TrEMBL record:
This is Proline dehydrogenase. It comes from Oreochromis niloticus. Converts proline to delta-1-pyrroline-5-carboxylate. Its EC number is 1.5.5.2. Residues 153-595 form the Proline dehydrogenase domain. GO terms for biological process: L-proline catabolic process to L-glutamate. Belongs to the proline oxidase family. GO terms for molecular function: FAD binding; proline dehydrogenase activity.
Length: 626
């Protein structure tokens, strides 16, 4: 199903017309956990920071070009402090040293919000803001508004580093306020009125639980939005639009980041995620019936006639209806159906509540996830899709690429599906929409390979941002407490292997077709070196702008700036917003840097090395020239 088919009827059609579930000509997919564990992995919170024929699957590794024109190999010296810090004045180096040192003191980090509140009371607002701009705010935030961030963006660009703009204002809610908002926005009216009756069809993972209602718990690398009402979502959409416009006005090839939970009621994301998971599970059930459960995701091809018989026997539909399901363009012509074909069954039905039909493995029948949707819930779901569509159009108009951030696993299948639909519409001529893949998840490689395969079949540009992940502690605690499988890989080494495995697959696709694009969002120097080595092996030139690198503003300049000055596309995530309103963001940066700095003193030692070099060279006052 195309993005146009998926969104347009949902936002325009008469909600009274309900069509039967049927196959659509194009294909779609759900980024849902595989029943097989692929590789293991863990996270280091955000790691420091966000295809062709249906017949026998042709593995990319089997189609490598045998002959390549020799290219000069890229080698980056990450020890060269003169290159790494040439964009920084001496005062900026001293500020970095001070901030990073403060981040190593547990008491300062643990009590950072209380200390900031006390400082504001003792110093007054004006002096407090001055102090923050000289320290934490000045280190990690670009400025207060669109105009004040332009000098820093232009300076970074002069040294080869682009920007991913991110308006980092957050509500400063208490835990009780956050929990109340989450429960109100994630539970449907039907569930509130008849909790016992609705609970029968719902899975624990995809239901709201008060003890995990505050989604900020254990998360130090990602911004969190809580639903208030539709007007607040419109305001947040306008904020994203302003961010997109600012990115377009400040640079020629910028990115802007958005979060789906800012654009609508999370109830829809929870419910749609559960539907996608259950459809995927039903496919696995049918694959097992045909003795194909041990195959990899893309190798599982169900025999069409046998599949029709199974569906008829299960009572999923009448024989004629099932026959009609598989008459879409090119669908089933090979005599088999794979997971991407199967996902097409979730179709462009007019009423969004019709999307929330799930197969019952016991009866085989399609049943509604919830029996009742109010008209207001229907409208809220449609508005979320409208907002997503509007943002994508603004990104195209302003020449900005849009990165959709990953979120918790109970929201992520729906987020990835909606992002995929945007890609199918807007990535036809160039990569505009980028999806984020969290490589600390057991399902990460399956998700990447499925999406790459779909992009190859349909001929659009695949865009990915690879991160290790930001929600590890929260996800593990929630899975253990509520009672479902831990979605996270077992350890950090396994996460690294998963990251490199996903990255290598996308790099091979770039080598194969030049229609894939990837943002390597990491502060891990070994991963950056791994990427450079693979690019050298494959003959991928940085000037092709297919492989990007990303780090947070104020961190790992010894990686970002040498890459940028060597001609690699590299970007800093650039947060901005008023001092008082980005305090939650700064609090997380302090917590993140505590682990980062305790684990490695490398960045501090490089900063000292450069400062000493300048002093010995007589550069007491150093001003960057650009």
């Amino acid at each position: 199903m195309s993005y146009t088919k998926f969104v347009a009827p949902l936002v325009k059609a008469n909600s009274g017309s309900i069509r039967k579930l049927r196959i659509s000509p194009a294909r779609c997919r759900s980024t849902v956990a595989s029943t097989k564990t692929r590789e293991e992995k863990e996270q280091q919170q955000m790691d420091g920071c966000t295809v062709v024929e249906a017949a026998p699957v042709e593995l990319i590794s089997q189609t490598k070009k045998t002959a390549k024109a020799p290219l000069s190999k890229s080698h980056i010296d990450f020890e060269n402090t003169q290159e790494a810090y040439k964009s920084k004045g001496n005062i900026e180096l001293l500020r970095s040293l001070l901030v990073f040192k403060l981040c190593t003191f547990d008491i300062l980090v643990d009590k950072n919000k209380e200390l900031m509140d006390l400082s504001r009371k003792l110093l007054g607002q004006w002096m407090f803001e001055k102090l923050m701009k000289m320290t934490f705010y000045g280190q990690f935030v670009a400025g207060e508004d669109h105009n004040s961030i332009k000098p820093l963006i232009r300076k970074n660009e002069a040294f080869g580093v682009g920007s991913v703009l991110d308006y980092s204002v957050e509500e400063d809610l208490t835990q009780e306020e956050a929990e109340k908002k989450e429960m109100d926005s994630c539970v449907s009216e039907a569930e509130k009125e008849s909790p016992g009756m609705c609970a029968d069809h719902r899975e624990k993972k995809y239901k709201a639980h008060r003890q995990f209602g505050d989604r900020r718990g254990g998360v130090i690398s990602a911004r969190t939005y809580f639903y208030a009402d539709e007007a607040k979502c419109d305001i947040q959409m306008e904020t994203f639009i302003n961010c997109i416009k600012a990115s377009g006005g400040a640079s020629n090839d910028g990115f802007s980041a958005i979060k789906m939970t800012a654009l609508g009621r999370p109830q829809f994301l929870l419910q749609f995620s559960e539907v996608l998971v259950k459809w995927r599970r039903f496919f696995n059930f049918l694959a097992a019936q045909q003795g194909k459960s041990q195959m990899t995701v893309l190798e599982q091809k169900l025999e069409l006639e046998q599949l029709k018989e199974s569906l008829t026997e299960l009572g999923v539909g009448a024989k004629d209806d099932i026959e009609n399901w598989f008459t879409g363009e090119k669908l089933g012509l090979s005599g088999t159906i794979d997971l991407l074909d199967w996902n097409s069954l979730i179709n462009d039905t007019t009423k969004i509540s019709n999307l929330l039909m799930v197969p019952n493995l016991q009866t085989g029948h399609l049943e509604p996830l919830l029996n009742i949707f109010t008209e207001e819930e229907e409208r809220q779901m449609k508005r979320m899709l409208q907002r997503v569509d509007i943002l994508a159009k603004h990104a195209v108009e302003n020449g900005v690429r849009l990165m959709v951030d990953a979120e918790q696993t109970y929201f992520q299948p729906a987020i990835s599906r909606l992002t995929l639909e945007m890609q199918r519409k807007f990535n036809r001529e160039k990569p505009v929409i980028f999806n984020t893949y969290q490589c600390y998840l057991k399902e990460a490689y399956d998700n990447v390979t499925l999406d790459v395969e779909l992009s190859r079949r349909e001929g659009w540009y695949f865009g990915a941002k690879l991160v290790r992940g930001a929600y590890m502690y929260q996800e593990r605690a929630r899975a253990k407490e509520i009672g479902y499988e831990d979605p996270i890989n077992p350890d950090y080494e396994a996460t690294n292997r998963m990251y490199h495995k996903c990255l290598e697959y996308v790099l091979e696709e770039i080598e194969h077709s030049r229609k894939a694009n990837v943002m390597v969002a990491t502060h891990n120097e070994d991963t950056v070196k791994f990427t450079l080595d693979k690019m050298n092996e494959m003959g991928l030139s940085p000037t092709e702008n297919k492989v990007y690198f990303g780090q947070l503003l104020g961190m790992c300049d010894q990686i970002s700036f040498p890459l940028g000055q060597a001609g690699f596309p590299v970007y800093k995530y650039v947060p901005y917003g008023p001092v008082n309103e980005v305090i939650p963001y700064l609090s997380r940066r302090a917590q993140e840097n505590r682990g980062f700095m305790k684990g490695s003193q490398r960045e501090r030692s490089l900063l000292w090395k450069e400062l000493k070099r300048r002093l010995l060279a007589g550069q007491i006052i150093y001003k960057p020239v650009y």
